[in-house]
Amino acid sequence: xxxxxxxxxxxxxxxxxxxxxxxxxxxxxxxxxxxxxxxxxxxxxxxxxxxxxxxxxxxxxxxxxxxxxxxxxxxxxxxxxxxxxxxxxxxxxxxxxxxxxxxxxxxxxxxxxxxxxxxxxxxxxxxxxxxxxxxxxxxxxxxxxxxxxxxxxxxxxxxxxxxxxxxxxxxxxxxxxxxxxxxxxxxxxxxxxxxxxxxxxxxxxxxxxxxxxxxxxxxxxxxxxxxxxxxxxxxxxxxxxxxxxxxxxxxxxxxxxxxxxxxxxxxxxxxxxxxxxxxxxxxxxxxxxxxxxxxxxxxxxxxxxxxxxxxxxxxxxxxxxxxxxxxxxxxxxxxxxxxxxxxxxxxxxxxxxxxxxxxxxxxxxxxxxxxxxxxxxxxxxxxxxxxxxxxxxxxxxxxxxxxxxxxxxxxxxxxxxxxxxxxxxxxxxxxxxxxxxxxxxxxxxxxxxxxxxxxxxxxxxxxxxxxxxxxxxxxxxxxxxxxxxxxxxxxxxxxxxxxxxxxxxxxxxxxxxxxxxxxxxxxxxxxxxxxxxxxxxxxxxxxxxxxxxxxxxxxxxxxxxxxxxxxxxxxxxxxxxxxxxxxxxxxxxxxxxxxxxxxxxxxxxxxxxxxxxxxxxxxxxxxxxxxxxxxxxxxxxxxxxxxxxxxxxxxxxxxxxxxxxxxxxxxxxxxxxxxxxxxxxxxxxxxxxx
Amino acid sequence: xxxxxxxxxxxxxxxxxxxxxxxxxxxxxxxxxxxxxxxxxxxxxxxxxxxxxxxxxxxxxxxxxxxxxxxxxxxxxxxxxxxxxxxxxxxxxxxxxxxxxxxxxxxxxxxxxxxxxxxxxxxxxxxxxxxxxxxxxxxxxxxxxxxxxxxxxxxxxxxxxxxxxxxxxxxxxxxxxxxxxxxxxxxxxxxxxxxxxxxxxxxxxxxxxxxxxxxxxxxxxxxxxxxxxxxxxxxxxxxxxxxxxxxxxxxxxxxxxxxxxxxxxxxxxxxxxxxxxxxxxxxxxxxxxxxxxxx
Lengths: 690, 295
Known about the structure:
Strand order of the largest sheet of chain A: 6-7-8-3-9-10-12-11
Strand content of chain A: 15-25%
Radius of gyration of chain A: 27 Å
CATH architecture of the largest domain in chain B: Orthogonal Bundle
Number of helices of chain B: 11
Distance between the termini of chain B: 40 Å
Number of helices of chain A: 26
Largest interface: A-B, 52 and 29 residues
Oligomer: heterodimer
Mean pLDDT of chain A: 85
Order of helices and strands of chain B: HHHHHHHHHHH
CATH class of the largest domain in chain B: Mainly Alpha
Shape of chain A: globular
Mean pLDDT of chain B: 83
Low-confidence stretches of chain A: 329-334
Structural class of chain B: mainly alpha
Helix content of chain A: 25-40%
Strand content of chain B: under 5%
Number of domains of chain B: 2
Number of domains of chain A: 4
Radius of gyration of chain B: 23 Å
């Protein structure tokens, strides 16, 4: 690879001017070169500058940012000195971008075919009469089913994955030499993500395009990239081949980042990376990572390390990269999962008996048509037929893709949604023996004890903490409401709760906007625990957080569970996260339960075909492990009216029996239950063979 | 006073001073705030500053350009333009400064209520609001003024009423935005009473938007007041008013342009000042998301 690089960034520094007039650097002395046919991954946590770097390769900076130093070259063009017209010739043609949310990047009012033809008009020499044919070719190339039909559709008529494919097709229209991908699969379901990544791999192999792939997800990077660059606080801290970086990371930050990712094969919780990255302009004279580093020494705080070249061809910005082996000994400290003893002896705290929830409602017109034509509209419940018994002190994970009804169930248990049918029994446990009572379905009807005993933690702390309340006010709400605390007693309790989530008393006067994402989620957790609840409903509590922060939040939840014996219902789309914390796991598809059992059993064979699909699509941060894609990634918007919920996507479909009859629960070893027409023994052989 | 009450008060105060210092630290905010304060101070002190009585006519200076006696010349009746310009904003500022808070309060109250209640009542009332907004404002106001006559006691309620209607829209939209957020669900799930949720969780978030909206309404109202004066429905002569002065002097614009320019500069500097302040206030409060600092 001695030829001239396609994209060549030299010593690039980018920053913005703060209100006080100081320049705050966002990228610091970054070098990046991408050759033809190469695919490079840029990884790092939010705020590390990875997206800024990728966009700078296009000669684009977000508003307010400016180049401080350095050059960006694409082929022979210096991107930041090109005129607007020349830039337009390069961007979208030879150098294309695929953004994170292509649903927003496609024009909502024009058809997919029209938008792609427009891209051809701008960036290809093809005659206009051949445009349609070429568009169909492109849509076929990105493996969209029925390209002729997609041609005539509007973006909103496509699913998220299909929109992303259409965006890829559009980027391919100009036959680009390099493709920039900015978190292209973030926000997509696991199966969709796995399919898109496979598509990108194949496209790169077929066309010989260079790719720059920006992601926080090391699993995705492992799938598509040859080389990886790890970014931290606007610097490149480690650069090497994918297997070098992911298997034997020699920078302490990369090491910590990898350790913080929950893996399916792990029996313990991921290891948290303490602290937080410096804000722009805050990095001192020394190494930016020094404050969070286990190998820190005096020289780290005084001197900024240079990018060393190792004998293996890696580049690393660390004074102590030769001592990286010492990090492994610290890894042994990872938190051990809190053991929940004697679960089988504990009384059930919550019993769901045939819970059914419906969003859809009969309108005036439906009433009318029912009366006139006798055609009664059948309303299919969003969530149906949920039977689940949760014992005190147990953690039950609910997994499934978006639309699986997992958050809906939590909202209903919290009393925010009224179920259409079914019974919910709840045991306050105050009597010392099993005494379940009916839980009123809406929050307004619940008594003081029930309100206190069930607490909900939301996905996004930016949304669940009132931006106008200080942390003191946020914590005072449950404390005053449930325990009537005021004055000094309130203050003392607030401080002790904050300390339990490892935040100090000095946080009390702060507003949520002055806290980092992880700190905010800790406050949200503290608020829930302030009520001294029996049952905590966790709704995707780590999905809005960076991986290192996620590990810390998981460890905190685990610790509090150990301390308080609280029962959790833990909802997540991330199978590894659920496995890290749960005693039992329930798999949901379209609001119906497919599989339920102890987590070890659910994560091994036999599995419900849907669980099999989900597990197959999990991406491990390991370049040698390939996902097993068994079904396609069609997204269904509503559950089928009858039969098995998974009938339309099932890779192991038997035939009409699946469409006609809801399968019975089959009891496996232990408490493992699978709802499928295929006998368990047969499932085992089928899945072992695959 | 308990510990947490202390916290609350200090936090509200520090937030206010933080927002103010943020406004002042932006060049546009500093200029805007300076202009607004300058005009308010001028309106309060101008009776003691003016070199001439605003009613005093002097035929020998009629339509003269700037002279050493009359720095900005005299109008068609020989009255001193400088004195009249200095005094010309008093009436406008007084009327709009009273009418704006009334408009924001009643419009905000109705808007928040509709946003919370929703359903059919909301639907019907919002269509009435739409119908109101689709009529030209000057027409609606003239109907009321013609019916009830001019004067402060008609102008203030008229302006307050009509300028409260767009506030309904804004307050309702802001309420919808906040109600959909998780911290409201969190408060509901905890079992707080409805009024507590409205007072503690909803209002502080909607008030930011209303504050900015109020500032914008103020500048619109000033324009409306001046337009009414211009048409002869606002301040009655000989009381000086910028709108009226522009109307009187525009016939002589070709040979005595200062007579128009002086009130125009005065009126526009005040409106520009209010708009600049409102813009920076919005940015300081983080309402204008598109304008947020990068990264």
